[in-house]
Design goal:
alpha/beta; 9-stranded mixed sheet; 9 strands; globular
Length: about 300
């Protein structure tokens, strides 16, 4: 598919890169909790990673659910981080973890992290959230690498796909990404999305600041939201990207998913003629073999 020139996103300046990377502290302490077996018999362990919040500098937790390979714990070399959509860990994320652990991949769901759900009328909150999300993923990478995983992939849906796109653009230890109904052009997505939380924020902000149209609101967001995954899509040596696009999507409008495909030169691309949430389900229900083949080749 030929993309219009308007889909391009300008490269980030040094200040943005410094904000994303400059206050990151790789040190973590790991506390392991509940253990057991998953639905397919994979060893299951919950972990809490205590590390430094990149915004405040104070201690904060990132919570993980690990599904070790079904045969046992002896092979941790290949691992996949799973980043949930808005609302946190769900049955599809758990399904992917079971799917991959049963097929020889260590799977770890990044369940949530402190401050993840903070919301304010100030649109700058979205950049703050991106900084925290990236640091949380990188702390999960520290955990994986320190416990034996050397070939790491990432899989995210919706906002989890945007976090995953940012992560593969900035964290070289992540070698491949599968992005399900993610997008680029963050200020435009936030302005136009029908997702419940973003819709409520839009209504409150437009009332508070007197924006008369969505166009005015979008312009205001553009002045405050400066972090966009597409700005980092062209990192030299960046690994391959699989993308799932929903052609009837209003939560992350399809045009912004197509811009992600162009920015990351994604291949393969799975196009589904369904809406946002249905695409997330169908990617798991009907396209697992394509994801498995992608990560087997990439890792």
């Amino acid at each position: 598919m030929t993309m219009l020139a308007s889909s391009a996103v300008a490269a980030p300046d040094a200040a943005i890169l410094q904000r994303l990377m400059g206050n990151y502290d790789p040190k973590i302490e790991v506390e392991s909790g509940e253990t057991g077996r998953s639905l397919v018999g994979c060893p299951y362990t919950e972990h809490a990673l205590k590390g430094k919040d990149p915004v405040t500098g104070s201690s904060r937790e990132v919570r993980l659910a690990e599904y070790a390979v079904k045969a046992g714990d002896e092979d941790h070399a290949r691992a996949i981080l799973i980043i949930p959509p808005t609302g946190g860990e769900n049955l599809i994320d758990q399904g992917w973890a079971n799917f991959f652990c049963a097929r020889g991949f260590r799977a770890v769901i990044v369940r949530d992290w402190d401050h993840q759900d903070e919301a304010t009328l100030d649109p700058a909150m979205h950049d703050t959230g991106a900084v925290r999300a990236l640091a949380s993923v990188r702390h999960a990478v520290e955990f994986l690498e320190s416990s034996g995983s050397k070939r790491i992939g990432i899989l995210g849906a919706s906002v989890g796909a945007m976090t995953s796109g940012l992560a593969i653009g900035l964290e070289p230890r992540i070698k491949a990404a599968a992005l399900v109904v993610g997008g680029v052009g963050m200020h435009q997505i936030i302005a136009r999305s029908t997702e419940e939380t973003l819709t409520q924020l839009r209504q409150k902000r437009m009332e508070a600041y007197g924006y008369a149209t969505i166009g005015e609101y979008e312009k205001a967001l553009a002045a405050k939201i400066r972090i966009d995954p597409a700005d980092f899509a062209g990192r030299p040596g960046r690994g391959p990207v699989l993308a799932v696009v929903a052609t009837e999507d209003e939560t992350v409008p399809t045009e912004f998913q197509d811009r992600l495909v162009a920015a990351y030169r994604a291949a393969p691309v799975i196009r589904l003629q369904v809406d946002h949430s249905t695409a997330i389900r169908h990617a798991y229900w009907y396209h697992g073999d394509a994801f498995k083949a992608f990560f087997e080749n990439a890792l």
